[in-house]
Specification:
Blueprint lengths: L8 E4 L4 E4 L4 E6 L7 E3 L10 E6 L7 E4 L6 E7 L2 E8 L8 E20 L2 H4 L4 E5 L2 E6 L2 E8 L3 E5 L2 E9 L3 E10 L10 H16 L9 H13 L1 E2 L4 E2 L22 E2 L3 H11 L2 H15 L9 E2 L10 E2 L13 E2 L10 H15 L8 H15 L18 H20 L7 H18 L1 E2 L4 E2 L15 H4 L7 H14 E2 L2 E2 L18 E2 H13 L3 H12 L11 E3 L4 E3 L5 H19 L2
Antiparallel strand pairs: 1-2, 2-3, 3-4, 3-5, 5-9, 6-7, 7-8, 8-9, 9-14, 9-15, 10-11, 11-12, 12-15, 13-14, 16-17, 18-19, 20-21, 22-23, 24-25, 26-27, 27-28
Helix pairs in contact: 3-14, 4-5, 4-6, 4-14, 5-6, 6-7, 6-8, 7-8, 8-9, 12-13, 12-14, 13-14
Length: about 600
Amino acid sequence: MHPRIEDYALIGDEQTAALVGPDGSVDWLCLPRFDSAACFAKLLGDEDNGHWRIAPEGAERCARRAYRPGTLVLDTEWDTPQGSVRVTDLMPQRDRAPDLVRVVEGLSGEVTLHSVLRLRFDYGSIVPWVRRVDGHRVAVAGPDSAWLRSEPEVRTWGEKYGTHSEFTVAAGEKVAFVLTWHPSHEPRPPLIDPLDALEHSVTDWRAWAARCRYDGPHRDAVIRSLITLKALTYAPTGGIVAAPTTSLPEELGGVRNWDYRYCWLRDSTLTLGALVSAGYQEEAEAWRNWLLRAVAGAPRDLQIMYGLAGERRLPESELPWLSGFAGSTPVRIGNDAVNQLQLDVYGEVMDSLALARSSGLSAKPDVWAVQRALMDFLCKQWREPDEGLWEVRGGRRQFVHSKVMVWVAADRAVRALEQYPELQGDLDGWRAMREEVHREVCEKGYDPERNTFTQSYGSRELDAALLLIPRLGFLPPDDPRVLGTIEAIREDLGHHGFLRRYTADETTVDGLPGGEGTFLVCSFWLADALHATGRTEEARELFERLVGLTNDVGLLAEEYDPVAGRQLGNFPQAFSHIGLVHTALALYGEDGAG
């Protein structure tokens, strides 16, 4: 049986990440960065596309697994007739080279384990040359080199283009494996001590998690979400990837398979808010600084997403040799949505920088110049249709959410000038723009017959992003149009108690065949909207059900299929975990924020 998306756990070193299955197999790992080519791609193919499994001989799924509390260190345990054994997986924060550490420890009896390592560089397409050097197994192909060693050394041999090891551990005995990557033209990096690395990783993660200010209900889920966001951060730049994976399907067997290993501007305000509110000022500043570097340049060239260091070219292509997760093809790398016009990102950047200023993040002298340039551009372009925040591929429209975010941009600019008179800007012009956008949205984006805002001007379709209207300040929560929109969205987009983001089929806006699951962050938005409109008990009940969708180690994908009872889309998804943190903080307020 093919694994489910939620079968996986995440480990990482804040520069890349791996997915580990309950059978003890690492099925996904890109080296040296999140967006590098995978050397383990079984997740999107089969064993011949690369993986590394350590498990007791003849065993299938583990008996239990869990993160060590407050860490990204994963313990997986098996019970066998011969005894019990634990495999601890981690990726210690690197000095130079990325290391994948796997520590096997006997718990009782004597257990024989088998390790099978199949390195396949370039997304599972290249079988490396493997040789033995000074007790190490060294795999080389083109620009990539990886070294495998064990401490103590165990019996290891090559077979069927894989590296096999077999060994026995008794209670209290440990065998540690380390896989280290480096560019093939460089010498092997210094060796790490795997047991010291394990000890330091546990200490460092727990110290970081202890900074969390939230102390309300589901604190463990909030901390796990924050740890996941930290794990999805590219430490050298502060950028946060949407997910560490590509092409995990939004519909099993379908074509809605996208590469999410990049940084989206649409996540910026929510990410900043979650980090600042939870007590992570340093991480919030790093994200704000990444944002400023990424958007630098001519405002007309602003993109919806960037690479980990702010790279702009993210060309999309397909990998035909990979069969896809559960047969879902095509497998894509890169993302052509980078070329879309999405006017909402201007509002998101303006809102993020306003939040950074009000939250007391360190001042940056050029921030207001960037904001003025964005506003000058937006004043001329805001009337244009765009592809909207969901990156639809069915043509541009006058999306209501995009126009609301244009209003947000103008509103935050006006508020800045009113609060800080020393700043220079077109106060009268921006006020007039704010009023005009508001008037137009209320006239053209609102359906009085159904008492709801619509997805785009003149359309009958709805959009879960409209739930953000009260949070953004466009209208107050008790406005009848807001209340009507919430009810219409629940009726039209509700599916077994959760929300789709919009109606997805061949006849609708996205121009793609097939459907998709309910969108988790949209359901968190619904909880936020219910709470804002005084329906806090309903909001808390929905939040409880959403937290209940996390897998056994607390992770969420992008979407959920409530009929099949399984997660869908790239995994784990930053947007979903940001939603969880934000909703917990909103619902429990003073009770939860320490």
